[in-house]
Please model this.
Amino acid sequence: MTPSTDKPSTDRNQQLFDRARQIIPGGVNSPVRAFRAVGGTPRFVQRAQGAHFWDANGQRYIDYIGSWGPMILGHGHPAVVDAVQRAVLEGFSFGAPTEREVQLAEAILALVPSMDMVRLVSSGTEAAMSAIRLARGATGRKRIVKFEGCYHGHADSLLVKAGSGLATFGNPTSAGVPPEVAQHTTVLEYNNLAQLEEAFSLFGAEIACLIIEPIAGNMNFVRASVPFMTRCRQLCTQHGALLVFDEVMTGFRVALGGAQSIYAKAIPGFRPDITVLGKVIGGGMPLAAFGGPRAVMEQLAPLGPVYQAGTLSGNPVATACGLATLAEISKPGFFDALSARTRSLVAGLSAAAAEYGVPFSTECEGGMFGFFLLPELPQNYQAVMKSDSAGFNILFHGLLDRGVYIAPALYEAGFVSAAHSEQDIAETVAVARAVFRQMAG
Ligand SMILES: *Cc1c(COP(=O)(O)O)cnc(C)c1O
Model:
């Protein structure tokens, strides 16, 4: 590297990023943090409290990422901090069972009635990967079906894009994934009923599971339509495939019972077979889970032939954090208040965009929201990617410079926490107005 002749930056974020890039690929431990889509210097977080965090320069931001979903109570909630501090004093990890794992499993099952049993793991990736292995083991089938734009972590069989036609093999989206692995994954367009029908008629008897984000938060915010979800359920049942709900993002976030509780209201008797959870259940600590009917879950080791394990699974500090978080969000009125706050944010943003004639559409559920610089809400990944990315980058940096931190990519959802005050929302909308005015002018 040629030494820079510029005078050293006084920006602490830039200094840290320069240091990080020497020794951590891209300077980050998860790619989207690097700001590659929007350009500029990632903010290195020094500390956070409530709805705010402060970067390495001491600049304050209103945080609409909340660690990509887990921080539903905001940062440093006193009841959660207290539970974690007490747990830390009792020990970090034992590699032997604890009462808190049982308590957390009971708490999760009480809130998600489609699950009879649950296993705790450490990340959403691990949970989704294990759920797929379980579905394959339980059905004795190889093929899995997923949807374009849905993210289920980075296990090999899930880093796959559609082939040239439905009857052709899926292709890896990452180097290092053997084509032979990708061949067992079929990728369909989200909300496309005709493709869904065709896939099941072509190879319904081979499908171990269909995995779906019921409200997709990894292509901004796109709901599976009720007719589409109804058909997913019917076809899985008819062909003996398992319906896997990836609620790593939506679980305990869009409603106390997750997205499945919302579909169950619209579709009588609806329930997925396997549910994958993460993010909110750890309250910001590494914790995730998957669960489902007893007969399926009993296929797991040590009871059954499907192997799955983890040194830090059910970690005592993480379970304390998760339990304290679930206790808070289970309080009466929690989701009503959170939903109202989120709705006031998106209504304010919408009105501000309309004032300056900026094309804008938005959606929200519970503490999760999305918006698009498009006149109408998209229904699938292709439509999401038609969003104006240059416009998004102006909006992103305009907000960031004025102390509002949203996801640094147009295909990510946003998150409101219980700590976001009316004043935080008002400040955000005022800042957005200024940026929309600039975009229009
Ligand atoms: C975040 C996410 C994952 C992956 O979870 P990690 O903890 O990052 O491994 C899987 N599925 C969905 C829907 C997610 O949002």
